[in-house]
């Protein structure tokens, strides 16, 4: 039986070599003891290296030697469930030791990071790191499409006592902590204005991910620069404050102000610029739409 490539690759990520993974899977699939020749034949591991491979598996406890009555050496695998439990215990122990040891040797940071993230998977993975690393507070501005991917990590953060504050563009989403829906402008209008689903995740006022999603594509940054982190937090707080203020005034007055005010119209005139800037990795300011005008009340007659 040929081992599935995906399973082989995953076992490699847990420390086995390619040959070790293939040999182990061949033994699991056999359901009976195999000698080295049979393991090589079933797994595709070269006969010249199969005994060395089986020796390493035996030394690590993933297989056992079984001697027959005629003193032939055969091999049995550690059952998969037991193997996975053993690996989990081993890695948890190692991670616990490193978690205690590594901070002690890290010097104070002299350089703050800002690095680009390209692609949905890369952005959400880094955002997951930020959420998982939160210990005190977590600020999020998210859409339903991204909430699905981060929901479990956010729930785990809430369970360990992190103060979670979320602005969501979804309706009736069961997000833990303090959650506010974006009602001042419907999500469709926001999407039209920005050209993307703008996403923000900030942990402990210490690090953040800011990005934009369009369909299955995405671009953004990770940063632990205090200035970037502060702006990201204040963006989420300000947007939530706007929703709360709007709820305290008559809906028709809010709608009229939002659609008729000249300065608001100017500020919202650069439809799609946010997505363009994120996709391009930033802007030098030369191509920004909309010219400079004096604030109302300061215009000349």
UniProtKB/TrEMBL annotation:
InterPro entries xref list: TrmB-like, Tscrpt_reg_TrmB_N, WH-like_DNA-bd_sf, WH_DNA-bd_sf
Residue stretches making up the Transcription regulator TrmB N-terminal domain: 11-80
Region Disordered, annotated ranges: 278-301
Biased composition (Basic residues): 290-301
Pfam families hit by this protein: TrmB
Name assigned to this protein: Transcriptional regulator, TrmB
Upper classification of the organism: Bacteria, Bacillati, Actinomycetota, Actinomycetes, Pseudonocardiales
């Amino acid at each position: 039986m040929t081992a599935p490539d995906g399973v082989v690759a995953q076992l490699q990520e847990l420390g086995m070599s390619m040959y070790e993974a293939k040999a182990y899977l061949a033994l699991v699939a056999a359901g009976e003891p195999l000698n080295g020749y049979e393991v090589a034949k079933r797994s595709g591991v070269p006969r010249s290296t199969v005994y060395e491979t089986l020796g390493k598996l035996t030394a690590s406890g993933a297989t056992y030697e079984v001697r027959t009555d005629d003193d032939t050496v055969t091999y049995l695998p550690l059952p998969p469930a037991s193997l996975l439990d053993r690996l989990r215990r081993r890695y948890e122990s190692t991670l616990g030791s490193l978690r205690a040891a590594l901070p002690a040797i890290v010097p104070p940071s002299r350089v703050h990071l800002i690095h680009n993230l390209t692609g949905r998977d890369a952005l959400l993975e880094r955002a997951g790191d930020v959420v998982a690393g939160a210990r005190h507070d977590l600020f999020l501005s998210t859409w339903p499409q991204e909430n699905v991917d981060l929901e479990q990590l956010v729930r785990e953060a809430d369970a360990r006592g992190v103060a979670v504050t979320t602005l969501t563009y979804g309706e009736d989403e069961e997000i833990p902590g303090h959650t506010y829906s974006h009602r001042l402008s419907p999500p469709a209008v926001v999407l039209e204005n920005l050209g993307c689903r703008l996403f923000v995740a900030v942990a402990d006022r210490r690090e953040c991910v800011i990005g934009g999603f369009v369909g299955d594509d995405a671009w953004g940054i990770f940063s632990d620069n205090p200035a970037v982190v502060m702006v990201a937090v204040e963006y989420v707080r300000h947007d939530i404050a706007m929703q709360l203020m709007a709820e305290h005034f008559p809906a028709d007055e809010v709608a009229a102000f939002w659609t008729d005010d000249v300065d608001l119209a100017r500020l919202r005139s650069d439809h799609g610029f946010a997505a363009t800037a994120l996709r391009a990795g930033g802007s030098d300011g030369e191509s920004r739409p909309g010219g400079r005008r004096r604030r109302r009340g300061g215009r000349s007659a």
